[in-house]
């Protein structure tokens, strides 16, 4: 019997050519109408989520930011960052139409033909700051992840204007700029608890001096239970602001044993999580919590995280304000770009990245 187009591609050496080199990604695979998950995506049993470990009765906090300078709101934010490392915010000040526009723009980008998207691949992109790709680091992964992404590192409006895809550039820039006040407010609340009296320019730059935005696409998957949308990882950012659509699928490590908690889509909300850089700067007080994304068998899902980071050339370590108060440092000073390169050199491996900075 003649092989179908789908089996011919997934069973042959043309696989990486189709998915990676030609820019079809997993979206292209999904649209072939596969009946079975290609073997390249089958995760080992221990990396598949066991639904009996999901705690349906638990949830991360949802914090109303309307009265953002109220002491109770500040306390809720700091407590959530300590206890959960993850929370959702509503009435956060980022206009809802800005969020809707960036979701539409993401669908527009992924709706383009593969050859158009591929112009932004690592090989062809005119800028190192714009990268369209699939999975996380296909060269380093034993099993691939069921996700395509466009990663945009912000340098300046001029650079974005010249190199970001015109189909989504304006909406992504607006989302990024409209979120800045929220990021500043959250960082001011969180660092006040770390004895930081004032966030001057140097501190601002250390906490949020560089920004990366990813447009993630998780297409319909034939065997979602066998694979991962994104494997277990923590973000290397200071703080991540995540916009998800109404499909769901993000899971966060719970406080007890091997437990996982779903982050349900809440209309108009943003998900906030502590990244490794803030865990390190807070000397472990705030935790960058492991999270993962499940693939979906019936719906395409998108998410748009903004990663607020130190600048690549910054040295990061426990804040001097904490050490002056007598805390013993748990982490050494590391060059942030070395830390990020270490993250990008290996497949997702849960919380292991942070060992790079441990004393
Ligand atoms: C979950 O799935 C993900 C997640 C992510 C990102 C998650 C985050 O937490 S992003 C926050 C990261 N912080 C920053 O980007 C800001 C600081 N930036 C830097 O320090 C640097 O720009 C740099 C990222 C280290 C790149 O430095 P550069 O001097 O230009 O070094 P390179 O040699 O070009 O890159 C090193 C190495 O990194 C890999 N890489 C770079 N960018 C990306 C990217 N956007 N996506 C994937 N991989 C990237 C790459 O392997 C580079 O080596 P090559 O030789 O292969 O080019 C992102 C994607 C997900 O799926
Ligand atoms: O898609 C999501 O909900 C989360 C994505 C994520 O964890 C990431 O991009 O770092
Ligand atoms: Fe993440």
Automatic annotation (TrEMBL):
Keywords: Dioxygenase, Iron, Metal-binding, Oxidoreductase, Vitamin C
Domain Fe2OG dioxygenase: 204-310
Pfam families in alphabetical order: 2OG-FeII_Oxy, DIOX_N
Family in the record: Belongs to the iron/ascorbate-dependent oxidoreductase family.
Top-level taxonomic group: Eukaryota
Xref: PANTHER family: OXOGLUTARATE/IRON-DEPENDENT DIOXYGENASE
Gene3D superfamilies, alphabetized: B-lactam Antibiotic, Isopenicillin N Synthase, Chain (2.60.120.330)
Entries under PROSITE patterns matching the protein: FE2OG_OXY (PS51471)
Cofactor: L-ascorbate
GO molecular function, one term: L-ascorbic acid binding
Gene Ontology biological-process entries: coumarin biosynthetic process
Name used for this protein in its record: Feruloyl CoA ortho-hydroxylase 1-like
Cited InterPro entries: DIOX_N (IPR026992), IPNS-like_FE2OG_OXY (IPR044861), IPNS-like_sf (IPR027443), Oxoglu/Fe-dep_dioxygenase_dom (IPR005123), Plant_2OG-oxidoreductases (IPR050295)
């Amino acid at each position: 019997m003649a092989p179908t187009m789908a089996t011919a591609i997934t069973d042959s050496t043309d696989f990486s050519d189709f998915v990676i080199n030609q820019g079809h990604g997993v979206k292209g695979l999904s649209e072939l109408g596969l009946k079975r998950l290609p073997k390249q995506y089958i995760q080992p049993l221990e990396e598949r989520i066991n639904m009996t470990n999901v705690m349906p009765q638990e949830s991360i906090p949802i914090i109303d930011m309307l009265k953002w300078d109220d002491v109770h709101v500040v306390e809720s934010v700091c407590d959530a960052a300590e206890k959960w490392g993850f929370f959702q915010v509503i009435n956060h000040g980022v206009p809802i139409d800005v969020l809707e526009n960036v979701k539409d723009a993401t669908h527009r980008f992924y709706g383009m033909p593969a050859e158009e998207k591929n112009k932004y691949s690592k090989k062809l992109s005119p800028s190192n700051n714009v990268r369209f790709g699939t999975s996380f680091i296909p060269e380093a992964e034993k099993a691939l992840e069921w996700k395509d992404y466009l990663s945009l590192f912000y340098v300046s409006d001029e650079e974005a204007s010249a190199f970001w895809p015109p189909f989504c550039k304006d909406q992504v820039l607006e989302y990024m700029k409209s979120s800045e006040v929220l990021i500043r407010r959250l960082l001011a609340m969180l660092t006040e608890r770390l004895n930081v009296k004032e966030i001057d320019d140097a501190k601002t730059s250390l906490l949020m001096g560089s920004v990366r935005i990813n447009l993630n696409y998780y297409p319909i998957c034939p065997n979602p239970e066998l694979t991962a949308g994104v494997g277990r990882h923590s973000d290397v950012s200071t703080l991540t602001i995540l916009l998800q659509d109404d499909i769901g699928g993000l899971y966060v490590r719970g406080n007890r044993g091997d437990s996982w908690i779903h982050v349900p889509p809440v209309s108009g909300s943003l998900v906030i999580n502590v990244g490794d850089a803030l865990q390190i700067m807070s000397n472990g007080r705030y935790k960058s919590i492991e999270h993962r994304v499940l693939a979906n068998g019936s719906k395409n899902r998108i998410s748009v995280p903004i990663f607020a980071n130190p600048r690549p050339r910054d040295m990061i370590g426990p804040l001097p304000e904490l050490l002056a108060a007598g805390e013993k440092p748990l982490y050494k000073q590391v060059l942030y770009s070395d830390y990020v390169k270490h993250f990008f050199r290996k497949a997702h491996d849960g919380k292991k990245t942070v060992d790079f900075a441990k004393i």
